[in-house]
Amino acid sequence: MDVDIWAWVGEAQQQLSEAGNAPFAMALGDLPAQAYEGRYPQLDVMAPAIAQQAETLGLPWLEFYARYWHLIGRIGDRAQGAVAIGDAEELVAFAQREDVRDCPSAPAAVEALALAQANADGPGYAAERLAALGPAIEALEPTDVAYAGLVTQYVSALTDAGRADEAVAYAETAIQRLGAVSREASWELGAESSRALLAAGRADDALAAIQAAADFKPDDPVAKPHREGVRRALILATLGRTAEAVDALPDLDVVGDHPRDFVEWAQAVAKLAGSAQITNTWQLGRVLRQWIDYFGMMGGYRARVELALVAGDLAVDRKGVWQAELLADLAEHAATELRSAEGVAERVAALRAAAAATAAPEASSPLEERVAYFDAADGINANPEEWVGWLAPLSGQDIEATRRHTTTLGFLGYPATGADIYWKMLVDGGRIATADAQDVDFLTNLLVEARQDERLEQMAELLPGAFKHLALARLHLARERWEQAVSEAEQALAAGAGIEARRALASASQQLDQNAKGAQVLREALGGDDMTDEDVWRMIVLATSAEDWETVRVGAKRIGMPVKSAEGPIEEELGLVRIILPAPDGGQRQVLSIRTGPATARLALPQPRGMEYNAGDLVVFDPQLLEPVPDDPQEQQNFVPPFAAVRMLRPGGYTSYFFDGAAPSEEDWAEFTEVMAERGWPMWVYSDENYQVSHPTSGEQLPGVFGWVAVPPDVSPVEVDALLDDATERWVHPLAWLDLAREVDVEVERHERIVKEYGL
Q1: What is the pTM assigned to this prediction?
Q2: What integer pLDDT is reported at residue 383 of this predicted model?
């Protein structure tokens, strides 16, 4: 949807700012960027919060705005289908309310619903989409900014309905109508026209259309490059222009972040897989299998079927017969979720026939020695798809072969198939109660990955106590049912399950903030051979969170990390680290900090108001590095290791105050920072070299500076105001700290004037 349709939001932002809702106003403007740029953690936090606040303030247009962008973040690049249709239908109903229907953006709800339905099953929902979009378009003029977006979805629905020629004509007419009122078609409309032309068998015209649309303004500018590349590659591949298609096709590491591109990218690759430039590998098959599962979770039923069929054809081409057969089964089953499965049965039958006519690669080892050959295979160059076929004759009969076969199936994305083999062998064969712990572990993992929870619970009832409770503990951990996981892990430990039960109990205890329990259960196993360094670090983190410093010292000694003090809290200076903390908008912030212990750090930089942490706070972090140490020695010298924060241990009680203004001379700034350092007040500049302010008389642009200074709890706001005033009184241009001035009610008008005159 053209962002111009939200022009009224700017005025609403200004009104909110003037009414004292500046944070709310600022957050509004960032929602489209969050949706388009893929900042989904922020969007999933901020959009619902803004919608709720808008409802509280009685601003239904803004509530619609927030709900719309949240939905677009789901049905756009993430391509959510059936899981989003209900929310899209609610948005349409909301847009029809009397206090919303006059909003210029209200038609966007119809477009969003059509997109969600297309994601679920384009052909199946085609008639329903056309019925809703038609009246919405008729109610608009080409001058309306909602027009192009609705027309784009109408063209898409016509194509999905098998009416490609009508879709082409409709798109051409719409583009002409837009031109007649001096409005340019969106890139999305041009791209949809090219899809219709391709569906109509006019690949040359489709290529001309996508090229003609290249200069059109996109509604989603972030997505245009990779979407255009995929569409162009598919058209060129259809035309047999292989080298050009390969050049146009975005790399997998680009497309892998954009589910909306998955199907067309796979279709293009399938057409190019026979060329020297595109290699049809087992790695490709594994990726496509992951994409199939993604659409299964998102309700992208049509995409799931299409990917299964494309992946099956590719599997046949590389002689992966077993995989092609499983993908045919998957496509056949997934087709039952389609509203319109026309043509699917024929394609499934063709895939089965191709698989049956294909000879699988012959094994390079005798059947009786196959397990030994598997174990000796090169882990880098070996082909796991081939090994699945070679081990299949032994799997379900020989336990060693079964272990390797089923775990390889799970690795390639077929855990349910592996679970079926193990289940038949152990459960149906009546051997589960006496099975080896390793086999119970393998089967448990396969069932968890396949999300066959009821089956796992059924198996657990057949196991002896320790195995039963450990299997259930793993299930509850995977499903984030922490209390149940603790209960089952405790019972497993009591029944003699050992280190695995301790790990499960420690993990679940940490989630429930029962850190002392988790640390103790690991410490009890500290002398055993099963305890790894990873277990020791987990114990250290838990003990630190519980402030059990004795256990922290015991763990530090075990891993060879010296601690100077012999008792009490560990407070040392162990170098700089970067602590990764959550931001209120759902994103993350990196805060430079001083490492004070094996798993503690004190934040060194002041944070803006509204954050749940600030300079002086002591946090617990996970000692696992988030980035590898650089290989280059020079880079190592400047490398500050990043760690993920686990929890706040003790707040420092610091308060931050914002300052803003024209940058002073280097001498004045050096003196200012020295004054802050002498008092131990952390200060940090958040502006960069691009930040500029306006000279109050000439209007010329001046280098600006803004940041935060944090003060400890024993310093009053009045003291801060007085110090800032004294430290900056000789500057050529004054510094403003308006929020602080209002708090202490000192020279508020002067600070307001500075803000206004310098355009801060």
Answers
A1: 0.84
A2: 93
